[in-house]
From TrEMBL:
Alphabetical list of SUPFAM superfamilies matching this protein: Homeodomain-like (SSF46689), Tetracyclin repressor-like, C-terminal domain (SSF48498)
Keywords carried by this UniProt record: DNA-binding, Transcription, Transcription regulation
Official protein name in the record: WHG domain-containing protein
Molecular-function GO terms, alphabetical: DNA-binding transcription factor activity; transcription cis-regulatory region binding
The keyword Transcription regulation belongs to this UniProt entry's keyword annotation: yes
Record carries keyword Thylakoid: no
Organism encoding this protein: Streptomyces beijiangensis
Length: 190
């Protein structure tokens, strides 16, 4: 019988919180069960397995970051939108490192499970922001990939102390945004 009070959503939120504390890759069903004061088996009434839990955390984190990004760029264009997007994304990665890590995993599910209005809006946000730079396909996809790679690399290096230099990382971050803006304004069209 399922433990009273446990739901898939409650378990997922607890896993996301735990991921932020100890790291996404260290979250286990056993650790979650201990946190709830139940046996591991109690979780299996709500969560299929660790892969299912990781997918749920990734979806939760994706929704959370998208809500922030959409609000940040609403009504903005060009450098204003890029700066708001970049800073919001960086803030999320710093405030929620486990959730951020979850958004980077490859999810192996039926593609139709991701064909929802919510997922389409999340994918569309960076594309919409970049259209203000006059980009169209395939340049849009290339620019989105450039931003993701740049931001992810920066976050990873920053989180692991990889910028071992006295220059303030926020100053370098702001220059990175300036450089990206300049590049996007002068994009070499296909």
């Amino acid at each position: 019988m399922a433990r009273a009070g446990l739901t898939p959503d409650r378990i997922t939120l607890a896993a996301a919180d735990l991921a932020d504390e100890i790291g996404f890759d260290k979250v286990t069903l056993s650790a979650l069960a201990r946190g709830f004061g139940v046996k591991d088996a109690s979780l299996y009434s709500h969560i299929k397995n660790l892969a299912d839990l990781r997918t749920r955390v990734a979806a939760l984190a994706g929704r959370e970051v998208h809500e922030r990004l959409a609000a940040a760029v609403a009504g903005r264009a060009g450098k204003d939108a890029l700066t708001a997007f970049a800073n919001t994304y960086r803030d999320f990665a710093q405030e929620h490192p486990g959730r951020y890590a979850a958004t980077q995993i490859q999810i192996q599910l039926d593609a139709s499970a991701f064909d929802t209005p919510e997922i389409r809006r999340a994918i569309e946000t960076p594309y919409a922001m970049l259209r203000a730079y006059g980009l169209s396909e395939p340049d849009l996809t290339d620019a989105v990939r450039l931003l993701r790679a740049t931001f992810h690399g920066y976050f990873q290096l920053e989180a692991t102390g990889g910028f071992n230099h006295p220059r303030d990382t926020t100053a370098s971050w702001n220059r990175t945004i300036d450089a990206l803006h300049s590049l996007l304004e002068n994009w070499p069209h296909s």
